[in-house]
Amino acid sequence: MAILENKVAVVTGGGQGVGAGIALALAAEGAVVAVLGRTLATLEATCAEIHHRGGEAQAFVCDVTEAEDIDAAIMEVVDEFGSIDILVNNAQIVPLGRLLEINDDEYQEGMDSGPLATFRFMKACYPFLRGDGSIVNLASSAAMRSDSAGFGAYAAAKEAIRALSRAAACEWGEDNVRVNCIMPLAMSPAMSRWVEGGGDDVEDFLGTVPLGRVGDCEEDVGRVVVFLCGPDASYITGHTLPIDGGQAFLR
Fold first, then answer.
1. N or C: which terminal CB in the chain sees fewer CB atoms within 10 Å?
2. Which residues have a catalytic role annotated?
3. Where does the signal peptide begin and end (predicted)?
4. Is 88 helix (H, G, I), strand (E, B) or coil?
């Protein structure tokens, strides 16, 4: 039997890249996946691939920066599937640029789509997760790099998510809700286009990854999320797991 059989998983930002890879991996292990995001066409593409492989999924349009959208989407998921067992907070608008280049609106957008959305989704899902639920939040190794120039606003948002996750793990452990973070380096659509373009910058970047490659969204990242949400990780909570080929901590 698939290890997530009869589990209902919510994945935000599931229309492409890491979110889609996670949704595919969860569905492959039997989870029914609610794929959330802003663009219906991309959400439906993820669901179509899941259906093609014999899994079950449904798209739910949701702007994660809007509290009303979050509450409405979660209630729609529960009305459709009856429960929520897994929450993966992946959606994030990425504010990149040096600190003097980032304006207040860009900084706030990163916070609203990242830690604030994560905070809201965790609270909205908590009543359904109690008893045997798992949350996986996406952080980033951006704050761990020796040179985080150009990543300050993004790193701040992702570190806030880690702080929220640790607090939730402490507060909700008594309810058997586990909360962990991952820090992935994966072949998102933007990363794929850049790597395929080649050049010295790409070679230099890959040289910072001890394993010499960028991770696959489904096989490298999604499978780790499956593990964290499955029975073999039932005694793991409050942790942050880098999935980056050793880049953040070995180089």
1. N
2. 154
3. none
4. strand
